[in-house]
Write the structure tokens for this entry.
Amino acid sequence: MFEFAWPWAFLLAPLPWLLRLLLPAADSGEAALKVSFLYELEGLSGRRARANLPAWRQQAPFVLLWLFLLLAAARPEWVGEPLPLPASGRDLLLAVDVSGSMEHDDMQWDGEDIPRLELVKRLFGDFIEDRRGDRVGLILFGSRAYLQSPLTFDRHTVRTWLDEALINIAGPQTAIGDAIGLAVKRLRERPADSRVLVLITDGANNGGEIEPRTAARLAAEQRVKIYTIGIGADPEQSGIMGMLGLNPGVDLDEATLIAIAKQTGGQYFRARSSEELQDIESTLDRLEPAAQLPTRARPAHALYAWPLAIALLISLLLVARELWPQHWQTLTSRFGGAA
């Protein structure tokens, strides 16, 4: 169906004539000389005296130019039939800890020791890509929490943002409460039975302004279900670092993470290895989708380029008539007209 996106642009149609009536006529300040044989003089120079043409023929090119510009400004478009959008899944936010402790390489992937954050990227990147029909967003938190990607159907972009996350980009501390608070703020306007937060951390809350249990209470009031994941190898699994007592996994506040999950109707998972984290990903992937309000969109194909191109062509012809009057007169005489 053909329609205009901005039909109000046609209200500007009388603007040139209103300006001509309201503004004073241009005055060069010089005396004018009237010559009775002006037509013959302009004929010898290759010009036609357009003053002898009817007024409507003098104004017609400019009227057409203005009308085509208005037509382009009104944004004509061809609108297709309504098409359904994928909106049957959940609104899922992934909150990932990027504090300094996530740099410890006590996790394994294909027999190679890799940092905790790198393992999260590899496994949960695929998790994000597989969320067809879900709106997915990303929160990165350290000393503060930041919304890296809002809820969107563009899962590939969200995965890209996760892959580009850097250690300490949000500060060296761990603000679990702030991450939950930010998630609640973003999810509270979505349908109540589709709000899900997956929070991944390897430490205890030691930064931010909101206590995790207070934030969890707010999340429960807003019906945001939180799944918490504690990542990091046990001390005895950490090799030399564990033997020296340097394993940051001992800082993991499992009691708080369990309480957050229980209070919001979610579940707590402990990931000590890549295999366990992969199992957790599979468990989360089996969450029951919650129906949302149906969303439909009508594809629109913009057509404003056509009247804009015609207006440009008319402008070029008017310029050519002024710059090359002799050639213009020869051209128009071939078609039996005069400009």
